[in-house]
Structures are given as structure tokens and as C-alpha cells.
């Protein structure tokens, strides 16, 4: 099964060869489960690069997918935080 997210097609398969898709899927799962609650920060881009062994651009791309979906927003000087929209999506 796949779903369309803006211009990115995301497979519901963790074996997707695109690292940014796997990272975005993992973060999305953590948001929906409540592990990353509304208002809480995402792991930093640096932390994501270390955890996933990817380039900074790859981690940034993953986060930008979530920004496009409205699940996270950039807070200048503080990084990326889960939006209240993410909390509402969880309730649906």
C-alpha cells in the first residue's frame, strides 16, 4: 500500500531504499504513537544523521517531508517541533 504525500510517494514498507523515506516514516510513527508529542522537539538533524548513518541533507529531506505534511514546524533557534495538527491526526 502507498500513500501520496505532496510530491513524494511513501511506501508503507520499511525496506524502501530511500533513506529519507525510512527516516520520515519512523518519525511519523513516533509522532502518531505519542512518543513525540505535540510541542515536543524532534531529534536534531545532527542526531538523526548519527542514528541513521546518513548525510545531513538526507536527514533534512526527511524532516522537510513532515513539515510539508504539517506534522512538524521549524522553531527558529530551537529546531523542529511536533505541531498540534499531529495531535489532532492522532485522535482521528
What is the correct CATH architecture? Answer: Orthogonal Bundle
What does the average pLDDT come to?
Answer: 85
Spatially, the strands of the biggest sheet line up as: 1-2
CATH class: Mainly Alpha
How many distinct helices?
Answer: 4
Residue ranges: pLDDT <50 for 5 or more in a row?
1-9
Report how far apart the termini are. 20 Å
What is the CATH topology? Arc Repressor Mutant, subunit A
Strand content: 15-25%
Summarize this entry quickly.
This protein has helices at about 20-35, 45-50, 55-70, 85-90; strands spanning about 1-5, 10, 70-75, 80. With about 90 residues, the chain is of the alpha+beta class. The protein has a single domain, classed as Winged helix-like DNA-binding domain superfamily/Winged helix DNA-binding domain (Arc Repressor Mutant, subunit A).
